[in-house]
Amino acid sequence: MSLHRGAPPTPHESDEHAAETRRLSLNPFYGEADPIGGMTSAPPLHRLADGPMPPSTAYQLVHDELLLDGNSRLNLATFVTTWMEPQAGILMAECRDKNMIDKDEYPRTAELERRCVAMLADLWNAPDPATAVGCSTTGSSEACMLAGLALKRRWATRNAARYPATARPNLVMGINVQVCWEKFCNFWEVEMRQVPMEGDRFHLDPQAAADLCDENTIGVVAVLGSTFDGSYEPVAELCAALDALQERTGVDVPVHVDGASGAMVAPFLDEDLVWDFRLPRVSSINTSGHKYGLVYPGVGWALWRSPAELPEELVFRVNYLGGEMPTFALNFSRPGAQVVAQYYTFLRLGRDGYRAVQQTARDIAMKLSGRIGAMKEFRLLTRGDELPVFAFTTAPGVTNFDVFDVSRRLRERGWLVPAYTFPANREDLDVLRIVCRNGFSADLAELLITDLAHLLPELRAQDHPSARDKTAATSFHH
């Protein structure tokens, strides 16, 4: 979550002016019985008020302030689910008071979690879904942390004679990984070795990754669905390169697949693509239930091929909640609502339902990317034919505006389309990215195209791009 530092700075104002502002911040109609009774000013913003207020008033104050947030349905930056059926919302409301960790008190909720793990193990072709192990998490970031911990502990056990005295573990990945992998390496003191982008390759290169591996490598992370451009990394080719490395040197390096998005797309739309537990070198997989798993935030899943891939000493057993329950998580207490919603969605859709939803998202992405690619001002980098996500940039010769101008102008019309700069070695490339999710329908895509076409004449009339500081202009936060 974001790190905040107390109250934000505010423009200087007199105490008299501040008091008058608080007085005028309350609509007299907020007082239900008596429009002016007992309501003289809005509460302070950065300290607790001296007394309580009616629940309807508190609701209305918070509700009104949140009107200034963007419309989540028009947020084409986020991968996170922004629409579910009303029945799912009702189920989540019924379960929001259940603590997911209290498995003895809420055995049916725990059973639904177990069923979800089994379903994912089957979906991802575990050798024996009945023996695969896994757990729910608050999202893919936590799931990645757990997978990384398992990789490090397995490596440390194999290298007990050298670690920590003379050996420092490292983890290999593409430079396009989500920021949670940087956090993992920082928090758990693992050297991060990254494969840079080159030319039109915007993700990990299998041979380059294998070349970075040595006896201190705890694993290689492959991303099934890069957040930068929506492309799949070549997991099978990576495993083949690591097989060759082992034959040549004896170094055996496992693979973790970060399938935050793609692990809930590829099984339905790319069934012939081999990326999962069918590859013996893949030891663990994670996904975000709250992305293309089609559940509101926050729920993620981490699965291991078998118990051998998850060191037993990482699993804690607690009994003060009424029964001895194993737990492997960075968090402890959290609501059971999202896990219940995940099971509801699995039950509701089945394989054919998921296939229909994801195919619709991909079809919309490809049609939308085709329309944008046909505009002379833009050049496509990806088409949305893997994840329903595509990236594009301004065409060669366009000098009077840039992607940051496009992002800013679309925001004026309610659309949140991120603009950002690629990492090494493609810092020269500034792009826009559009994420098509369930709920972003063909008619909304048509409205986006219409708005984009309307703002282009104004952008063409500019003398030069308006944003000089790209770091200030970007709206991309991974």
Instruction: Please provide the ordered H/E string of secondary-structure elements.
Output: HHHHEHEHEHEHEHEEEEHEEHEEHH
Structural class of the helix and strand makeup? alpha/beta
End-to-end gap: 13 Å
Number of strands: 13
What is the tally of helical segments?
Answer: 13
Spatial strand sequence of the major β-sheet: 1-7-6-5-4-2-3
List keywords for this structure.
478 residues, 13% strand, 4-stranded antiparallel β-sheet, 7-stranded mixed β-sheet, 13 helices, alpha/beta
Explained architecture:
By secondary structure, the protein is α/β, with parallel strands linked by helices. The chain is built from 13 helices and 13 strands. The protein has helices spanning 15-24, 55-66, 86-95, 107-123, 140-158, 179-187, 206-211, 235-249, 266-269, 337-373, 403-412, 442-460, 470-473; strands at residues 133-137, 170-174, 191-195, 217-223, 255-258, 282-288, 300-304, 316-318, 325-327, 378-380, 389-394, 419-421, 430-435. α4 packs parallel to α10. The model has no long low-confidence stretch (mean pLDDT 90).
Short structural summary:
The chain is of the alpha/beta class and 478 residues long. It has helices at residues 15-24, 55-66, 86-95, 107-123, 140-158, 179-187, 206-211, 235-249, 266-269, 337-373, 403-412, 442-460, 470-473, and strands at residues 133-137, 170-174, 191-195, 217-223, 255-258, 282-288, 300-304, 316-318, 325-327, 378-380, 389-394, 419-421, 430-435.
Secondary structure topology:
Elements: H1 15-24, H2 55-66, H3 86-95, H4 107-123, E1 133-137, H5 140-158, E2 170-174, H6 179-187, E3 191-195, H7 206-211, E4 217-223, H8 235-249, E5 255-258, H9 266-269, E6 282-288, E7 300-304, E8 316-318, E9 325-327, H10 337-373, E10 378-380, E11 389-394, H11 403-412, E12 419-421, E13 430-435, H12 442-460, H13 470-473
Parallel strand pairs: 2-3, 2-4, 4-5, 5-6
Antiparallel strand pairs: 1-7, 6-7, 8-9, 10-11, 11-13, 12-13
